[in-house]
Amino acid sequence: MALLSLHKVSKYYGAQCVLQGISWGIDPGQHVGLIGANGTGKTTMLQLITGDLSPDEGDISRRRDLRVGYLTQDAHLTATNSVLDEALSSFERIHELERRLREAEAALEQARGDAEETERLLGQYGRLEEAYERAGGYTYQHRAQTVLHGLGFKEDDLPLPVRVLSGGQKTRLRLGKLLLGDADLLLLDEPESHLDVAATEWLEEYISDHPAAILLVSHDRYFLDRTVDRIAELEDLGLQNFPGNYTRAMEVKAERLKARQREYDQQQAFIKEREEFIRRTIEGVKTKQAQGRRSHLARLERLEKPRTKQRAASLNFGSMKRSGRDVLMLEDLSKSYGTRTLFSELNFIQHLGDRVGLIGYNGAGKTTLLRMIVGQETPSTGTIRLGTGVDIAYYDQERASLSGERSVLNELWSVRPAMNEGTVRNLLGRFLFRGDDVFKQVGLLSGGEQGRLALARLILEEPNFLVLDEPTNHLDILSRQALEHALADYPGTLMVASHDRYFLDQTVNALLVFEQAGVSHWEGTYSEYRAFKEEQRLDATAAAKEKEREKAPHRRRAPAKYDPRKKERKEQRMMAEALEAAIRKKEAEIARLEGDLGEEGTFSDHETVSRVGSAYVRARQELEELYVEWEVVTMELEE
């Protein structure tokens, strides 16, 4: 049975229709990517599903017990809670079971001497304990810490009060709570937007394995490829369904478009042939046949011509001046703020035509490096030199170069007043400003539209060295593709910081990777880099297993170099093994007590019932404490 179904749903804002006649549904466990250009109604669709909006036409049916989780910016967080406690608050059912278990334990203590009541309470306690274990009661703290670490929170962040977190950290905490909850359907609206690459890749794996149904809104094509098994695309007020991840869905879409084009062409040929017959015979001996065919054509349901999105003509960069071979030279570069060092001893040369992407965790210094290159910040040590004839331009996300009072057309025209209007419109068309869009006032554009205009202006200035900081922020997939196509025509040198890995694969051929250990240089695409890192990880795992085999007693090894942490790790492993042994022993004791409680003779003696029942409750409590202790030790070992 579907979790949720829409039947001929339409939604209007005043006289403007946003969604029309949509029939669609989501099944249990299905992971769906919801895509579409900005303004096509993705957020409206999410709000219809949650019930925050009602359809103007049609109806929405939801499974009776459906639990929906929705990531919103205003989701409540308790300011005085620690980060960890706030995440743990997601486990409402487990906390309720814990409360009922404590109440059952107290009731058993009070029922001492009453064999019949003790038997009833023990049965109740056993059922509660079984439900607690099934719900993950012995592992939920470890799960919460794993999710928080995956989303970029460090161990030192977990005790911090929520009130001191940044806006981005609060969004990540809301996302963590949502992932840890027990919703049947998760609605995730660009969950990767506040994550660095490492956290995004962790989230991809976590979502892929998540048992709940997920409706994911994202413009990150790499992310969609790794998390969803269906694509729903909003376009022209309607919704189309495609099987597979993003890449496969776009292949299916292209195949369907070709099929519709063939059907349209065949119908047009049929109509042309009939009209030619009618024209030739309408006044001759075959008049009746001509009239019959005319009547048939009048009743024929005409197919609409498929809309094909053809790439616009290439941009003309013929007048761009050429720089020297060495475009950018970084020598022993470092940057610190107080006691915090972002990076140090960075040496790098970027040559003419190189297209370099900057990747790494948030706060590593990528934007700082770009600002230093364009002269907006100074290095702590080292030098930055630009080569001969380098003409640099910088996209900084703030779009400060735009004038809010001008129209889109005049904003671009102001860069090159001598250009004719057709040339300016052609360039604007490359960045998806068409028709009356060119007369919109810049100040009234959305963030994504302003971003596209700022990039068009930057390219029109024809610098030979483009420096871009997160140029795909606020851009939908269509806009990102337009930017990729424009940069494909750009013959100059490019440096770009971006979290959009699909965009990086399309635009750069080398990487500067910002990591805790420093900044490294990689020659190749992002996909090649990721494959290399995965191969490294597999090799390290294999080496670790081989090292374990070499530790067999019959092998002689050279004395190892003293490592002060080795003793601590060994003690932790021994502790984990001891706890596992204690858990097995305690579980055996509980099994024996359960056997005693199951014997008919036990309840003939009030003192035996009380003694065995108390021992059973005490053993369950001790087992729970052992599980918690084992969880802490194993987590420390994993770290």
Structural class: alpha/beta
Shape: globular
Strand content: 15-25%
Identify the CATH architecture of the largest domain.
3-Layer(aba) Sandwich
Arithmetic mean pLDDT: 85
Low-confidence sequence ranges: 555-562
Structural domains: how many: 4
State the helical fraction. 40-55%
What's the end-to-end separation, in Å?
42 Å
Count of helical regions: 19
Q: Give me the Rg, rounded.
A: 33 Å
The H-level CATH homologous superfamily of the largest domain, spelled out, is P-loop containing nucleotide triphosphate hydrolases
Report what the structure shows:
The protein is of the alpha/beta class and 639 residues long. The chain folds into four domains: 1-67 and 183-244, Rossmann fold (3-Layer(aba) Sandwich); 250-299; 326-533, P-loop containing nucleotide triphosphate hydrolases (Rossmann fold, 3-Layer(aba) Sandwich), CATH 3.40.50; 564-638, Helix Hairpins, CATH 1.10.287. The protein contains 19 helices and 18 strands. The chain has helices at residues 42-50, 83-88, 92-110, 115-134, 140-150, 167-180, 197-208, 221-227, 246-281, 287-299, 366-373, 408-413, 421-430, 447-460, 477-489, 501-507, 526-550, 564-598, 606-638; strands at 4-13, 16-26, 31-35, 57-62, 68-70, 185-189, 213-217, 230-235, 238-243, 326-337, 340-351, 355-360, 381-386, 392-395, 465-469, 493-497, 510-515, 518-523. The strands form four sheets. Strands 5-6-7-3-8-9 form a six-stranded mixed sheet, with helices on both faces. Strands 14-15-16-12-17-18 form a six-stranded mixed sheet, sandwiched between helices. Helix 3 (92-110) packs antiparallel against helix 4 (115-134), helix 4 (115-134) runs parallel beside helix 19 and helix 9 runs antiparallel to helix 10 (287-299). The radius of gyration is 33 Å and the shape is globular. Residues 555-562 have low confidence and may be disordered.
